[in-house]
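Why do we care about 3D structure at all? Because function follows from shape, and shape follows, mostly, from sequence. That is the central idea of this module. The next example makes it concrete: a single protein chain, its amino acid sequence, and then its structure expressed as tokens.
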Amino acid sequence: MSKNYFTQETEDAIVAYNTSTDFEERSRIYSDKIHYAFFKLTQNIIHTFKFYNTEVENIEETWV
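And the structure:
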């Protein structure tokens, strides 16, 4: 598995998501192909810029 979380496949999925008008298809595309990339992106932003000031005790609670 590639260490890259945002790939050409992810970009293609975003384009497909944006062009689709079917709610179920959009939901499937997002959950299967886009969600993980956005999850990893936000994790990296939080850790890179040290956005640890939250009102929760465990930062992982915000990732659910």
